[in-house]
């Protein structure tokens, strides 16, 4: 056990990761040694930032809490704190069921945790971060919460209503990130397209992006978690015109059939969904789209599932993930819709959809063989003798990678964090192989 060290463990999404990074910076500035997701946690204090979105994520968070409870019982840990979405959603139950935890905090609890640890509030540090990502890219969370009422989603009940971060704070944070060496900025939120509606009485994501693109040192910018209904189309003009903007859009469509989209309360129908994808393809030539789809939602019969398969086959979305519907307590769907699709059928549909997508992904990646692409090198895998990189077509963690042989290179690790031109020489449905030019 290392005195004055705090181990921070982050579960779930990149939005949680930003919260952890803000917490860790303020702890470090006040004299604590901090470590993130350590394989060998040795701190006298641990903070677990949990996820409570869906069943698998909740189970993973609970197992992590129990693992650290065991460390505490063995005398290897003095204090254990839990924060984030799981404790926001189930705090009272968790306090009763897991009394070994010293204190549970909610999803907006950086200041209360700092107070618990004897750290005074310092507004000057609120936009500073202890990066847990490689030092050349970072996430920028532009807003918190969500005003959408999707039938299946518990996030509004956990994170509350949509709240934009003031533009001046985001510019200050992004400048600090750039000064620290960040080259790629990844904008995130529960719904990035909603940015500014509460503060500026209109969708101002495009205005924010324009200002961020002017920051010296930022060479790539991409946007994740963009809702399709009322999508701000002026953003496509910026994406098409700016060399810094990655021609990449993450837009969770969830389905293509009218009946399912209506049951999901998505505020968009199948025709509008198709029109939006076509508009993106036309406005930004070469754009890479990433989406998520859901199978087995109430209202999905065979005809609706066939519609989804046809959509995926016709529009060839380059990056597509999917999951099966499950009722989440407290959501509109759980209270108002019958979960009528059997679990076994949901799994069959999920496997059929992902098999189709694997072929689409493979064909897309194979079409890139022989081309030259600019990549950002994320790491060096010494055991494999490979540089691990991404082009503008791949976001970190969720997409495939560009693997580059480091044979014959002197000190390949020194290339990490730099851009390079490569030739694509091989591909599978997820990753590409390349050689440095």
Question: Any overview of this molecule?
Answer:
With 437 residues, this protein is of the alpha/beta class. Helices cover 36% and strands 23% of the residues. It has 14 helices and 18 strands. The chain has helices at residues 14-29, 55-73, 85-97, 110-116, 155-159, 167-179, 197-200, 205-213, 234-241, 258-264, 270-283, 302-315, 332-336, 343-366; strands spanning 2-10, 33-36, 43-50, 79-84, 103-104, 137-141, 143-144, 163-164, 184-188, 220-223, 245-250, 288-295, 319-324, 372-381, 386-391, 402-405, 419-427, 432-436. Strands 6-9-10-11-12-13 form a six-stranded parallel sheet. Strand 17 and strand 18 form a beta hairpin. Helix 12 (302-315) runs parallel beside helix 14 (343-366). The N and C termini lie far apart (48 Å).
